Amino acid sequence: MNRSERNTSRIKLGFAAFCLSWVLLALPAVAADNIPYGFDSGGEKIFTRYNETPFSAMSGTDGRRNLNSFYELRQYPGSPPRIPHKVFPSFSGEQADCIACHGRGGYDVEQDTYVPVTPHPENELCYQCHVPKLTDELFVGTNWLSIPPPKLGNSQLGGSPPPIPHSLQLRGDCIACHTGSGAVAGIRVDHGSRGNCRQCHVEFLATEPALEFTRNK
Fold first, then answer.
1. Is residue 1 part of a domain?
2. Cα separation of 186 and 65, whole Å?
3. pTM value?
4. How many domains, the chain?
5. Do 176 and 49 touch, CB atoms closer than 8 A?
6. Which tens digits make up the pLDDT trace of 116-170?
7. 167 DSSP 8-state letter
8. For 34-75, how does the pLDDT look when each residue is reduced to its tens digit (9 = 90+)?
9. Any domain includes 133
10. CA atoms within 13 A on the CB side of 119
């Protein structure tokens, strides 16, 4: 092989390596449209929820849902909310009936409000935890006192991301409750597209006042 042929081979090899490098750089960008990278165990679910929720449901607002009305539907903070609307005789309480409205949210003409989205659509027996209110009278007298709701904010430093003040059992899909037209005004956020919420917000697990953090020397 003469010098000219060797130079031509080098040019072809260099061009092929250049093209291959661009292909390798482009692959993650293409895959990122369908496969989120670097998420924790719940982050991918949040990412998928955001992608599948219509823009109208994400951008709408309904100021009537506030923290007072949110807690009024619950026996205590963290308990399953009761069903606040009429339940038709044909309603079975199975997943298909509830998910028809609560799967993706949207505006409900009959209720004249935006429908909140369930954070756990994979649980099919909705009536196992959620029941309608059939009477205003108690079955028996009670001296029940609800526990106080968790304190919001409570950041260690001003401006730092607040911790998650509740457990994540059945409430790991942050997008469902904190983003969208059906979200409660007091806890509604506008950065749901970031997806991996627990990269900045961590579950507050302390049962006693937290000790001051000190760095080991």
1. no
2. 9
3. 0.64
4. 1
5. yes
6. 889 998 888 888 899 888 888 878 888 888 888 888 888 878 888 999 988 888 8
7. -
8. 544 555 656 777 777 777 766 655 665 666 788 888 999 999
9. yes
10. 18
